[in-house]
């Protein structure tokens, strides 16, 4: 076996063992006490899922703000008044539903039609790239994306990934820890950007992605957007006709089995959303001029 490959496998196996140990300890430390403080174990809001997080929200927000400023220095902002107004309008409604007083919300639309992406950094710093608007198509589509991305920040998914990565990325720890002293190291900024899917991203886990879909659906409903619209958005994002989702189709990643991916397949994602819609509808607060809600979608076979 190639020595480099053997070394990589060895590091991966060692990290996996440590993570398994840490996960086991997390269940213990949630009972309280010194171990809770040492291990950084906590519960995710809303879902109650166990998380390993080594950073305070204050430190996390500070890093998020600095990272957001760094992104806005790198990219031009859109000058389209209608599109900017839509992003702000949807963002303010989602922010109200999120009910996060510690966040100082900001919404930006970045002019880049080639980038199909959006993100929300800690502290409520949201940005959409114009490239994703061809898939959102309307305010409900924007709300689907906004709710999903805001959930990643609310559930602290980025620092959860960074915290787990600390066991292997020792150099990054020193950089990020500097933020706690009031100094934000440039490497910490890059770490946060990667952790929240900006530029080169560390992939969110399937658990985090599903959590973002589930809570994001509730947020868009509370904000007055019909949760049924999320299905149409994810169908458009799949790039395939509905009856071809999950099958080979001329699109990137089409034949990759779900167990080899960090994201749920489009088929799994849409099935989950269909299953969660009845619950989300309990939170739906449509504006007075909203059209009738869409009928329940037929579940995929």
Shape: globular
Structural category is mainly alpha
Number of helices: 12
Uncertain parts: 1-38, 252-262, 295-301
User: How big is the Rg?
Assistant: 20 Å
Distance between the termini: 44 Å
Q: What's the main sheet like?
A: 3 strands, mixed
Characterise the protein shown here:
There is one protein chain. The protein is mainly α and 301 residues long. The protein contains 12 helices and 5 strands. The protein has a domain at 60-155 and 203-283. It has a 3-stranded mixed beta sheet. Strands 1-2 form a two-stranded antiparallel ribbon. A hairpin with a 6-residue loop joins strand 1 and strand 2 (50-52).
Keywords:
single chain, 301 residues, mainly alpha, three-stranded mixed beta sheet, two-stranded antiparallel ribbon, 12 helices, 52% helix
Summarize the structure.
With 301 residues, this protein is mostly helical.
What's the helix and strand layout?
Blueprint: H1 3-29, H2 34-39, E1 41-43, E2 50-52, H3 57-74, H4 81-98, E3 106-110, E4 118-121, E5 125-129, H5 133-136, H6 139-154, H7 157-165, H8 170-177, H9 186-195, H10 206-222, H11 229-238, H12 266-280
Parallel strand pairs: 3-5
Antiparallel strand pairs: 1-2, 4-5
